[in-house]
Known about the structure:
By secondary structure, this protein is an alpha+beta fold. It has helices at 16-23, 29-37, 110-117, 150-161, 235-242, 287-296, and strands at 3-6, 41-43, 46-47, 59-62, 81-84, 88-93, 141-147, 166-174, 181-184, 189-190, 198-199, 210-217, 221-228, 263-271, 278-282. Strand 5 (81-84) and strand 6 form a beta hairpin. The longest helix has 12 residues, at 150-161. The protein starts with a strand and ends in a 5-residue tail after the last helix.
Amino acid sequence: MQNSISAGDQDRGKRLDHFLQEKLPGYSRSRLQRWIKDGLVLVNGAQAKASLVLRGEENVTVSPGELPPLKAHAEDLPLDILYEDAAVIAVNKPAGLVVHAGAGNHAGTLVNRLVHHFSALSRVGGDLRPGIVHRLDKGTSGVLLVARTDAAHQALAAQFSGRSVEKTYLALVQGRVRAESGRINTPIERDPLRRLRMTTKSGAGRAALTEYRVRERFEKYTLLEVRIHTGRTHQIRVHLASAGHPVAGDRLYGAQAAARVFLHAWRIAFTSPATGKRAVVEAPLPGELEEWIASLRCPGN
Protein backbone atom coordinates (compact mmCIF):
# COMPACT_ATOMS: atom_id res chain seq x y z
CA MET A 1 0.00 0.00 0.00
CA GLN A 2 1.48 3.33 -1.10
CA ASN A 3 2.04 6.04 1.49
CA SER A 4 1.95 9.72 0.52
CA ILE A 5 3.52 12.18 2.98
CA SER A 6 3.88 15.94 2.72
CA ALA A 7 6.93 17.70 4.16
CA GLY A 8 6.22 21.01 5.89
CA ASP A 9 8.21 23.92 7.27
CA GLN A 10 9.05 21.91 10.41
CA ASP A 11 10.81 19.34 8.20
CA ARG A 12 13.12 21.81 6.45
CA GLY A 13 16.75 20.72 6.76
CA LYS A 14 15.99 17.06 7.56
CA ARG A 15 17.53 14.18 5.61
CA LEU A 16 15.04 12.14 3.62
CA ASP A 17 15.72 8.91 5.53
CA HIS A 18 15.43 10.66 8.92
CA PHE A 19 12.16 12.29 7.82
CA LEU A 20 10.72 8.93 6.77
CA GLN A 21 11.78 7.27 10.02
CA GLU A 22 9.83 9.93 11.95
CA LYS A 23 6.76 9.60 9.73
CA LEU A 24 6.81 5.80 9.40
CA PRO A 25 8.02 4.57 12.81
CA GLY A 26 6.83 1.05 12.11
CA TYR A 27 9.70 0.48 9.67
CA SER A 28 13.40 0.30 10.51
CA ARG A 29 15.77 2.93 9.09
CA SER A 30 17.74 0.25 7.24
CA ARG A 31 14.56 -0.95 5.49
CA LEU A 32 13.57 2.60 4.56
CA GLN A 33 17.06 3.25 3.19
CA ARG A 34 16.81 0.06 1.14
CA TRP A 35 13.51 1.20 -0.35
CA ILE A 36 15.03 4.59 -1.20
CA LYS A 37 17.96 2.86 -2.91
CA ASP A 38 15.58 0.55 -4.82
CA GLY A 39 13.61 3.51 -6.17
CA LEU A 40 10.51 2.80 -4.11
CA VAL A 41 10.59 6.29 -2.56
CA LEU A 42 9.84 9.27 -4.79
CA VAL A 43 10.26 12.94 -3.90
CA ASN A 44 7.99 15.10 -6.06
CA GLY A 45 7.74 12.16 -8.43
CA ALA A 46 11.48 11.59 -8.81
CA GLN A 47 13.92 9.17 -7.22
CA ALA A 48 16.21 10.62 -4.57
CA LYS A 49 19.07 9.68 -2.28
CA ALA A 50 18.67 8.97 1.44
CA SER A 51 20.90 11.95 2.16
CA LEU A 52 18.64 14.40 0.31
CA VAL A 53 18.03 17.48 2.50
CA LEU A 54 14.39 18.52 2.43
CA ARG A 55 13.28 22.10 1.82
CA GLY A 56 9.95 21.54 3.58
CA GLU A 57 7.68 21.67 0.55
CA GLU A 58 8.03 18.19 -0.96
CA ASN A 59 5.54 15.41 -1.52
CA VAL A 60 7.08 12.04 -0.68
CA THR A 61 5.54 8.75 -1.79
CA VAL A 62 6.61 5.39 -0.42
CA SER A 63 5.72 2.07 -2.05
CA PRO A 64 6.76 -0.57 0.51
CA GLY A 65 8.70 -3.42 -1.01
CA GLU A 66 8.12 -7.09 -0.34
CA LEU A 67 9.44 -8.30 2.99
CA PRO A 68 11.80 -11.26 2.53
CA PRO A 69 11.63 -14.37 4.72
CA LEU A 70 13.09 -14.24 8.21
CA LYS A 71 16.80 -14.91 8.43
CA ALA A 72 17.03 -15.22 12.20
CA HIS A 73 17.42 -18.90 13.04
CA ALA A 74 15.52 -20.67 15.79
CA GLU A 75 17.27 -21.86 18.95
CA ASP A 76 15.64 -23.93 21.67
CA LEU A 77 16.68 -21.79 24.62
CA PRO A 78 14.73 -20.57 27.68
CA LEU A 79 12.29 -17.67 27.32
CA ASP A 80 10.57 -16.01 30.29
CA ILE A 81 7.13 -14.85 29.09
CA LEU A 82 5.41 -12.30 31.32
CA TYR A 83 2.35 -11.48 29.18
CA GLU A 84 0.80 -12.71 25.96
CA ASP A 85 -2.23 -11.92 23.80
CA ALA A 86 -3.07 -12.14 20.09
CA ALA A 87 -0.93 -9.09 19.23
CA VAL A 88 1.79 -8.73 21.84
CA ILE A 89 4.26 -10.82 23.82
CA ALA A 90 6.09 -9.34 26.81
CA VAL A 91 9.27 -11.15 27.81
CA ASN A 92 11.65 -10.79 30.72
CA LYS A 93 15.13 -10.28 29.23
CA PRO A 94 18.03 -11.24 31.50
CA ALA A 95 21.13 -9.05 31.68
CA GLY A 96 23.86 -10.17 29.30
CA LEU A 97 21.43 -11.30 26.59
CA VAL A 98 21.63 -9.49 23.23
CA VAL A 99 18.21 -8.68 21.74
CA HIS A 100 19.05 -9.40 18.10
CA ALA A 101 21.99 -10.44 15.94
CA GLY A 102 24.69 -7.90 15.17
CA ALA A 103 28.43 -7.62 14.86
CA GLY A 104 29.90 -10.55 16.78
CA ASN A 105 26.50 -11.77 18.06
CA HIS A 106 24.69 -14.27 15.87
CA ALA A 107 23.69 -17.05 18.25
CA GLY A 108 21.86 -17.16 21.57
CA THR A 109 20.01 -13.88 21.03
CA LEU A 110 16.54 -13.09 22.30
CA VAL A 111 15.27 -13.12 18.70
CA ASN A 112 16.64 -16.63 18.14
CA ARG A 113 14.65 -17.78 21.16
CA LEU A 114 11.50 -15.98 20.00
CA VAL A 115 11.65 -17.55 16.55
CA HIS A 116 11.80 -20.99 18.15
CA HIS A 117 8.90 -20.42 20.54
CA PHE A 118 6.54 -18.56 18.18
CA SER A 119 5.59 -19.58 14.64
CA ALA A 120 4.73 -16.03 13.53
CA LEU A 121 6.22 -12.66 14.44
CA SER A 122 6.08 -9.21 12.90
CA ARG A 123 8.47 -8.81 9.97
CA VAL A 124 8.34 -5.02 9.80
CA GLY A 125 11.60 -4.54 11.70
CA GLY A 126 13.69 -6.48 9.20
CA ASP A 127 15.04 -9.95 8.57
CA LEU A 128 17.13 -10.19 11.73
CA ARG A 129 14.71 -8.39 14.08
CA PRO A 130 11.34 -10.15 13.76
CA GLY A 131 8.88 -8.81 16.32
CA ILE A 132 11.29 -6.31 17.86
CA VAL A 133 9.58 -2.95 18.45
CA HIS A 134 12.10 -1.52 20.94
CA ARG A 135 15.33 -2.67 22.55
CA LEU A 136 17.15 -2.95 25.85
CA ASP A 137 20.92 -2.71 26.19
CA LYS A 138 22.76 -6.00 26.58
CA GLY A 139 23.53 -5.23 30.22
CA THR A 140 19.97 -4.18 31.09
CA SER A 141 17.40 -6.69 32.32
CA GLY A 142 13.63 -6.49 32.34
CA VAL A 143 10.42 -6.35 30.35
CA LEU A 144 10.48 -5.98 26.57
CA LEU A 145 7.54 -5.96 24.14
CA VAL A 146 7.41 -8.12 20.99
CA ALA A 147 4.88 -7.73 18.16
CA ARG A 148 3.23 -10.84 16.76
CA THR A 149 1.89 -9.21 13.58
CA ASP A 150 2.86 -6.35 11.28
CA ALA A 151 -0.29 -4.44 12.26
CA ALA A 152 0.53 -4.85 15.96
CA HIS A 153 4.11 -3.71 15.30
CA GLN A 154 2.95 -0.52 13.60
CA ALA A 155 0.37 0.17 16.33
CA LEU A 156 2.96 -0.26 19.08
CA ALA A 157 5.54 1.81 17.18
CA ALA A 158 2.98 4.61 16.94
CA GLN A 159 2.44 4.42 20.71
CA PHE A 160 6.18 4.65 21.34
CA SER A 161 6.47 7.55 18.90
CA GLY A 162 3.48 9.28 20.49
CA ARG A 163 4.96 8.69 23.96
CA SER A 164 1.87 6.91 25.27
CA VAL A 165 3.93 3.88 26.33
CA GLU A 166 5.01 4.29 29.96
CA LYS A 167 8.48 2.85 30.64
CA THR A 168 9.67 2.68 34.23
CA TYR A 169 13.09 1.42 35.33
CA LEU A 170 14.82 0.73 38.64
CA ALA A 171 18.36 2.08 38.81
CA LEU A 172 20.89 2.04 41.63
CA VAL A 173 23.19 5.04 41.27
CA GLN A 174 26.43 6.04 42.94
CA GLY A 175 26.22 8.74 45.58
CA ARG A 176 23.34 10.15 47.62
CA VAL A 177 20.79 11.92 45.44
CA ARG A 178 19.65 14.97 47.40
CA ALA A 179 16.26 15.74 45.85
CA GLU A 180 13.32 13.40 46.35
CA SER A 181 12.53 13.67 42.64
CA GLY A 182 13.77 15.43 39.55
CA ARG A 183 13.86 15.61 35.78
CA ILE A 184 16.68 15.79 33.25
CA ASN A 185 15.95 17.09 29.76
CA THR A 186 19.40 17.67 28.28
CA PRO A 187 19.67 16.68 24.57
CA ILE A 188 21.69 13.55 23.83
CA GLU A 189 24.13 12.91 20.98
CA ARG A 190 26.94 10.51 20.08
CA ASP A 191 30.21 11.35 21.81
CA PRO A 192 32.53 12.52 19.00
CA LEU A 193 35.63 11.31 20.86
CA ARG A 194 34.37 7.97 22.25
CA ARG A 195 31.91 6.52 19.75
CA LEU A 196 30.61 3.83 22.10
CA ARG A 197 29.29 6.53 24.44
CA MET A 198 26.57 9.12 24.26
CA THR A 199 26.97 12.61 25.72
CA THR A 200 25.04 15.68 26.86
CA LYS A 201 28.02 18.03 27.03
CA SER A 202 27.43 20.08 23.87
CA GLY A 203 23.78 20.84 24.59
CA ALA A 204 22.98 19.69 21.05
CA GLY A 205 21.61 16.37 19.86
CA ARG A 206 18.16 14.81 20.12
CA ALA A 207 15.60 15.88 22.70
CA ALA A 208 15.35 13.56 25.71
CA LEU A 209 13.37 13.59 28.94
CA THR A 210 14.07 11.49 32.03
CA GLU A 211 12.21 11.74 35.35
CA TYR A 212 13.20 10.06 38.59
CA ARG A 213 12.18 9.68 42.22
CA VAL A 214 14.06 8.23 45.16
CA ARG A 215 12.89 4.83 46.41
CA GLU A 216 15.60 4.15 48.98
CA ARG A 217 18.84 5.76 50.16
CA PHE A 218 22.01 4.05 51.34
CA GLU A 219 25.32 5.39 52.62
CA LYS A 220 26.99 5.58 49.22
CA TYR A 221 24.19 4.73 46.79
CA THR A 222 20.60 5.70 45.96
CA LEU A 223 17.89 3.47 44.48
CA LEU A 224 15.80 5.37 41.94
CA GLU A 225 12.58 4.75 40.09
CA VAL A 226 13.16 6.22 36.64
CA ARG A 227 10.65 6.98 33.92
CA ILE A 228 11.76 7.89 30.41
CA HIS A 229 9.53 9.79 28.00
CA THR A 230 11.87 9.32 25.04
CA GLY A 231 13.91 6.34 23.92
CA ARG A 232 17.39 7.63 23.17
CA THR A 233 20.40 5.32 23.16
CA HIS A 234 21.78 4.94 26.72
CA GLN A 235 19.32 7.63 27.84
CA ILE A 236 19.08 6.73 31.53
CA ARG A 237 22.78 5.95 31.79
CA VAL A 238 24.02 9.18 30.21
CA HIS A 239 21.42 11.42 31.88
CA LEU A 240 22.12 10.13 35.38
CA ALA A 241 25.87 10.26 34.80
CA SER A 242 25.55 13.86 33.63
CA ALA A 243 23.87 14.63 36.97
CA GLY A 244 26.88 13.22 38.84
CA HIS A 245 25.23 9.89 39.68
CA PRO A 246 26.27 7.16 37.21
CA VAL A 247 24.37 3.90 37.35
CA ALA A 248 26.14 1.43 39.62
CA GLY A 249 28.43 -0.90 37.69
CA ASP A 250 28.33 1.23 34.52
CA ARG A 251 32.04 1.68 33.81
CA LEU A 252 31.34 3.26 30.41
CA TYR A 253 29.89 6.29 32.18
CA GLY A 254 32.30 6.50 35.08
CA ALA A 255 30.94 4.11 37.72
CA GLN A 256 33.05 1.62 39.63
CA ALA A 257 33.23 -1.88 38.16
CA ALA A 258 30.68 -4.47 39.30
CA ALA A 259 29.33 -7.82 38.18
CA ARG A 260 26.66 -6.04 36.12
CA VAL A 261 25.03 -2.66 35.57
CA PHE A 262 22.18 -2.07 38.04
CA LEU A 263 19.54 -1.03 35.51
CA HIS A 264 16.29 -2.97 35.24
CA ALA A 265 13.26 -2.32 33.01
CA TRP A 266 10.73 -2.90 35.76
CA ARG A 267 7.36 -1.89 34.34
CA ILE A 268 5.80 -1.06 30.97
CA ALA A 269 2.26 0.14 30.29
CA PHE A 270 0.74 0.17 26.81
CA THR A 271 -2.54 -0.27 24.96
CA SER A 272 -2.81 -3.73 23.43
CA PRO A 273 -3.68 -3.62 19.70
CA ALA A 274 -5.56 -6.89 20.24
CA THR A 275 -7.86 -5.84 23.09
CA GLY A 276 -7.80 -2.05 22.97
CA LYS A 277 -7.27 -2.11 26.73
CA ARG A 278 -4.42 -0.74 28.79
CA ALA A 279 -1.97 -3.42 29.93
CA VAL A 280 0.65 -3.07 32.65
CA VAL A 281 3.46 -5.64 32.78
CA GLU A 282 6.12 -5.88 35.47
CA ALA A 283 9.35 -7.85 35.55
CA PRO A 284 10.51 -8.77 39.06
CA LEU A 285 13.93 -7.58 40.13
CA PRO A 286 16.49 -10.32 39.33
CA GLY A 287 17.97 -12.27 42.23
CA GLU A 288 21.44 -10.78 41.86
CA LEU A 289 20.04 -7.25 42.11
CA GLU A 290 17.89 -8.19 45.12
CA GLU A 291 21.04 -9.50 46.79
CA TRP A 292 22.90 -6.30 45.93
CA ILE A 293 20.20 -4.21 47.61
CA ALA A 294 20.13 -6.54 50.62
CA SER A 295 23.90 -6.12 51.08
CA LEU A 296 23.53 -2.32 51.04
CA ARG A 297 20.98 -2.49 53.86
CA CYS A 298 23.61 -4.00 56.12
CA PRO A 299 25.34 -1.47 58.38
CA GLY A 300 28.51 -0.01 56.90
CA ASN A 301 27.52 -0.53 53.24
